[in-house]
Amino acid sequence: MAYSAKDITVLEGLEPVRKRPAMYIGGSDSRGYHHLLWEIVDNSVDEVINGYAATIWVTLGKDGKSVTVEDDGRGIPVDPHPKFKDKSALEVILCTLHAGGKFEHGNYLHSGGLHGVGASVVNALSSDLVATVRREGKEHQQTFARGIPTSKLTITNAKIRGTGTKTFFRPDEDIFGAKLKFNSVEVRDRLEAKTYIHKGLHVVFEDEATGEKVTFAHDGGIADYLNKIVADRGKAPTQPLSFYAHRDPRKAGGDPNSVVLECALEWTEATDEHIQSYVNGIPTGSGGTHENGLKSGIVKAVRNFIETHSLSPKGVTLTAEDIREGVTAILSVYVTDPQFQGQTKDRLNNPEVAADVDGVIRSALEKWLTENRSVAEGIVARIVLAARAREASRAASQAVSRKTAVSHRLNLPGKLADCSSTDPAESELFIVEGDSAGGSAKQGRDRRTQAILPLRGKVLNAEQASTSKVLGNKELQDIVSALGCGFGADIDVTRLRYERIFLLMDADSDGHHISTLLLTFFYRHLRKLIVDGHVFLAQPPLYRIDVGKETWWALDDREREKILRDKVRANAKPEITRFKGLGEMMPQTLKETTLDPRKRHALRVEIVDELQTDRVLNELMGKDASARFRFIMERAATANEVDV
């Protein structure tokens, strides 16, 4: 087949844009449709961030297919262009690719538009566009269709006040089809976002179809924006304070070409990280070097804080993903010469920005953590939990018994004496030490609302055992099966079969040890149940004190002595019974003292200090015996009595 010069097509003017719109706006879908609006809006924003404008008006037409953007900036120049003397600067900008006032930094120090194609692309892809400019006391206007002027530049008003630019355009249905319209909610939300990013900016949005007219202005900037995003995502902050940093070298007499940075972030209960970043006010959905610098700075600051204050956890390695889990952040930078990836400006490629952002964030965040020690320790505790959850999840996925554990959750354990009620809100589960105690508890319970699950001896130490070993342990499997809400990362509290879970053990050292082992298991693998207030320690008495017809119950030796001192008459001879175990109690006695909701005294298990709880469990229940030895030796002098 012949191939010669006549086969080479030369597209002139704005023809390339209409031929291949995806190269300039990302596509001819809804995203590209709205991108036309953002190009015009961002031109007005550039006037704002460089100090030439304060307000932008955006009006959606009644049909939803046209829009008007107006600002109170300087107005696009309308005088004849030196190179194209028969054309005004306005016409050159709107009809010529790579024509604009942002290639040199004299007019715009910071700008989102750099390639001189935004306005001309909008013009090329619009069936009609009207540009109105107010400059030097006059109003000028020119009309266009599909990138071609349909009128000369004319003066429509020779006596006006103020300056600015107003652009009306209607996206071309030949390019986008007849069905696409501007999404009012999307436009509204993005315009409001811009007023958070740019302090001092006012945006007036009007939708002629609905009659809605609203003004956006947020002097709190991105700090307020962070609060809104966190609330909208529905994941509560884990700490009461958020971090904020701002650096503007220009105000300190520094290099005017340095990166201007503003950042706000906080850790939330989410299991992912959420970062919204902006460059010169342009949202960068695909991130880039500025986001990389932020992520790196967060990790370095937290690691330095942990090492400086000796908070490194034992038995787990913290990864960068653990540290950033749950982080919600907003990063806004202003770069003199940003290098974007493509005309849609979705990603920043300037390599020097990463190191700049990293340095600022690392230093400021580490200082903030040090100055807010209690908040910082709460953040570290959240990070440690994330690391343990990650390792547990990985181990569980690798365990051969995982599938078996899932099937067990679908079948209640045979030794469970379940309650007849199927309403979790009124149901209780008592996890009891031994079959003997289980027998007394079964006879003394309220069969309608109280279930009994007896355990055999001391359960597995979940702090020393691997996840696969925990999953394979029969006693712990029975607990998970009875609860019905899953295990580890797969826990679903909405499936919990009992509102209250009681650990009912003998009131002696062995009973306390078993309770501690169970609490370790709950904390490491069913922690959500503790956080939500479902776990309790039952309080069975250790002593019964009878004097005549009066009876008192004492939980321990100290309470026994207090009763003898304060309740029993001096000449009385009390009869004191010490229970060796719950199995010795008559069912009626166990009911009156421990099971009956109207008379019992139970302790709700709460996590007051996450970091301290994690450390204590690791030291006292972990594999390192030296930590337990130090604990015992440091407290040996205060141990008045040891229950053997």
Polypeptide structure, described:
- The chain is α+β, with helices and mostly antiparallel strands.
- It folds into 3 domains: 15-216, Histidine kinase-like ATPase, C-terminal domain (Heat Shock Protein 90, 2-Layer Sandwich); 221-396, Ribosomal Protein S5, domain 2 (2-Layer Sandwich), CATH 3.30.230; 399-540 and 603-607, Rossmann fold.
- The protein is elongated.
- The termini are far apart.
- The relative contact order is 0.07.
Question: Which terms would index this structure?
Answer:
disordered N terminus; 38% helix; 22 helices; Rossmann fold; 5-stranded mixed β-sheet; Heat Shock Protein 90; Ribosomal Protein S5, domain 2; single chain; alpha+beta; 9-stranded mixed β-sheet; 22 strands; 3 domains; 644 residues
Quick structural gist:
The chain has 644 residues and is α+β, with helices and mostly antiparallel strands. The chain has 22 helices and 22 strands.
Mean pLDDT: 85
The geometry reads as elongated
CATH level-four homologous superfamily name of the largest domain: Histidine kinase-like ATPase, C-terminal domain
Individual helix count: 22
Radius of gyration: 35 Å
Estimate the strand proportion. Answer: 15-25%
The total of beta strands comes to 22
Largest sheet: 9 strands, mixed
Low-confidence stretches: 3-12, 100-116, 399-410
Which percent range fits the helix content? 25-40%
Number of domains: 3
The CATH class of the largest domain: Alpha Beta
CATH fold-level label of the largest domain: Heat Shock Protein 90
How far is the first residue's CA from the last residue's CA? 100 Å
The appropriate CATH architecture of the largest domain is 2-Layer Sandwich
**Alpha-beta content class:** alpha+beta
